[in-house]
Design a protein that fits this description.
With 405 residues, the protein is of the alpha/beta class. Helix content is 37%, strand content 26%. It folds into 2 domains: 3-174, Carbamate kinase (3-Layer(aba) Sandwich); 255-399, VC0802-like (2-Layer Sandwich), CATH 3.30.2130.10. The structure holds aspartic acid and magnesium ion. Magnesium ion binds at residues 9, 151, 154.
Amino acid sequence: MRILVQKFGGTSVANLECMLKVREKVLAALDKGYKVVVVLSAMSGETNRLIDMAKKWSSKPDPAEMDVLLATGEQTSVALFSMLLKDKGVKTRSLLGYQIPIQTDKSFGKARILDIDAEKLKHMLTRFDVLVAAGFQGCDCEQRITTLGRGGSDTSAVALAAALNAELCEIYTDVDGVYTTDPNICSKARKIHKIAYDEMLEMASMGAKVLQIRSVEFAKKYNVPVHVRSTFSDEPGTLVVQEDETMEAAMVSGIAYDKDQARITLVDVYDEPGIAATVFEPLAAANIVVDMIVQNPSREGRTDMTFTVPKGSLEETLDIIEKIKDQIGARGVLSDPNVAKVSVIGVGMRNHSGVAAIAFSALKNENINIMIISTSEIKISCLIEEKYTELAVRTLHEAFGLDQA
Ligand code: ASP
Ligand code: MG
């Protein structure tokens, strides 16, 4: 049995006209001889509407009931779409998360998938040609409805594809793929035809708009090939797959940026064991996500420590630092919310030397100062003044030969 998973996002099921386009995609897959598992999101705007409604009803909506409420968005989509398929004589039925079942933990609003009954689904696929599954939802061990977090239908689709050993998981959306950088700030951005899971994860700042990050982690873990493409065209989109030689041949695959960064420097803290732990433990306990961290070489037993947090966490971070300032001997605390991170990403970096030098000299040519540099095997990130973000992205895009011809 050749199984294809096709997931359609909110803008693809927004109304009857869009759903008719979706039906064409599903019928085309049937023509190719596939059994199809269709995964649908709620109609665009619906999840937000339900959240706003809950907030009017209750000052603190019960998380479990919130999930019961939000799951209705996807329920509407699968019922309506199944009707459309039946009108064309397709053997199909809708499936809600608990009917499959997609078993999750009990974290309402951000549940993790634990298990999917693949045998039951495969058996159903002997009787039906298309199963229309509600994305974003599952159920816990007490049959209470759970949801997987915003954008969670992507993860539902990839998880179903993994469980069913599907040939491919197609994610249909309103953009035609993943680009070398944000096309809104760089008109020369190109569509990437094939990208490695790890690159996609690093492209988070732009990729997240296209795919829920957790779905990419899932795809990587179970090696599910994912094809991100547009519902409104027949052009191929971007394949997100395991790394291969063609990707390694390219030095760099894309340029990402993140404006949601704020910088904090602890001046002249003691350079002795336990200082970093004293700083970062309370931040972790407060659920503050620390991104870049640098510590300078020590001078006379003292050092500067610089790190970044999301802009929205800056105040809370400064409050926490204030409490431990004396304990770590800090002679000053500097902070700057007007910073951004630009990153050069590519698995090919592993085999090419000089990538960092190219990036730094490109920034130098534009007189952009680098405040922090951090690197991983497949990424070089620079913290810069926020107002230079667009310029830096365009400059790096050109420097690595990513510009569209
Ligand atoms: N409807 C949910 C949301 O808007 C899940 C999804 O669309 O993937 O976040
Ligand atoms: Mg989405």
